[in-house]
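Inputs:
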Amino acid sequence: MSNRIYVPDIECDSCVKLITKKLSKNNVQNFEVKEDSVIVTDQTNPKTVVNMINEMGYRASTEPFERKTLKERIRHYKENKHLYKVERTGIKHLLSVSVSLFALVLLAYFFIFRNIEGFAGNYGWWVFYLVISVISIGIATWHFTAYKAKITCMTGMMIGMTFGMQTGMMLGAVIGATNGFFWGAMVGMIVGTTIGVITGKGCGVMGVMEGAMAGIMGGTMGPMITVMMFSDHVLWFMPFYMLINIGIIIGLSYMLYEEVVEGKKVIIQPMDGVTLISLSIIVVAILLALMVYGPSSALISF
Amino acid sequence: METIINTKGMHCASCEKLVSEELLDNGAKEATADFKTGKVIIKHDKSLSLNKIKEIIKEEGYEVKE
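Outputs:
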């Protein structure tokens, strides 16, 4: 008799050794640990083996793990709202951060920037894109840091890379458009690398390296794109650029839930809403001041 | 007594667990491994010697920095 237990989180020799040790200690005599499953060929009940492997923090099942389609995910959400508590809180924070940042920008406009001639025409769309970028990156980072979980190297590298790249691309593009390539690249690279390292470090040095490299790449590519398009429909290009980048960030949060959270033992420690809003306001205020009072790019004309 | 060993080669949470479990199975009272720093902190008595600790870590496939 042979039973296959599917264990999709096996990713290295240490995982194989750990599972082998655990099963041997618990008197499972005939088994083989493969790259994504365990084949048990003795009389041990497969459910007992599944429980042993689950106890170690790995997902395990006698049925193959299949990713949910979007329809299945929506149905699962509707039927199991308690499993998506962090995500529902995230949506509330998304609304409160958005309201706070747009209120800040409006107040800044009426009390400070209104007297600057041509401000709305020169900066209007770029301020909007700055706020949208900070909201999307901020909420996605909050979502990621809300979970303390064991992250595989593959997933950790993907997370660090995407955060670093998207942060650099979005912020770099906006600051590049208003302040020129140098400042766009500096901001994109520094913030992108920082976010990439913070999010990638969950899986150790591989994630840190991946996050840092992506921050450099995204941070320099973002402003390069807008600066190169100054005289070629940059304002028509930006809505598509931002939508695609936001889509990638939403996909990242979706992947995070699927790969890091679902069916795994995780500790939930989200940052509180006030801290999130305060950090977002600080970042927007600093970048807004740089945009308006820093050196101007060729796109800004008074 | 507490012994701190610097190692090389741990790269994930499974490596940490593997090293610490093996040390606990061999008589350590507490064992904490950190793959980010490579440090393994072991609380043990005289029955588990320093040489034996090093041997256990090496047997699991990791290098012990002297």
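Remarks. The CA atoms of residues 40 and 57 of chain B lie 9 Å apart. Residues 2-65 of chain B form a domain with the Alpha-Beta Plaits fold (CATH 3.30.70.100).
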